[in-house]
Amino acid sequence: TRPGQDGVPGAMGGMNGMMPGMGPRGEMPGRGMEMVRRRETELLEWLEKNDPDRAEEFLKLKDENPRLYIKKMSSAIRRYREVIEMEKTNPALAAVIKEDIELKSRVSKLMRKFRTATDDEKEALRGELESLTSKRFDLIIKKKQLQYEDLKKKLEELKNNIKESEAELENLKNKKSEHIKERVEELINKTEKIRWE
Fold it and tell me: Is the pTM of this model over 0.70?
């Protein structure tokens, strides 16, 4: 993100901690603001169910430091959006993505410790880092497996739709004269069996 006038990267990629499309007073016209508020509400509701302490932190921060709240909320929306959407269609995959987000956060915290640790401490931290990295690798494999299975399922549904469409098309072609007669009767009697429009 580009820095704002005060040199601080803007929340959601905007200037001075504002989201793109916002006016000088932080207002956002119409639908853009509605979408942001909807995502904010959706995330807070999701956090209340999945991480109540974090939801409470956000609500407290909103009152105490609105600018920092916008920045952190923006980051959290980007981080958890995929999980929230995925829970509606594939809860198993959503759980894996959520676990991976948590592991990435733990790795980041560990790396911050590692940078300031002594040589003796680094050895212990290295072992912990290897363990977390191994767990993340397993999660990546699991995520790819679930995505593959989801894609395979969608492909099967698509194949079935194609077969049904082919059967319908063949039926229409093979029974043209019957359908013409039926259509004429429908027009005369004002009833329809086939969509002619």
Answer: no
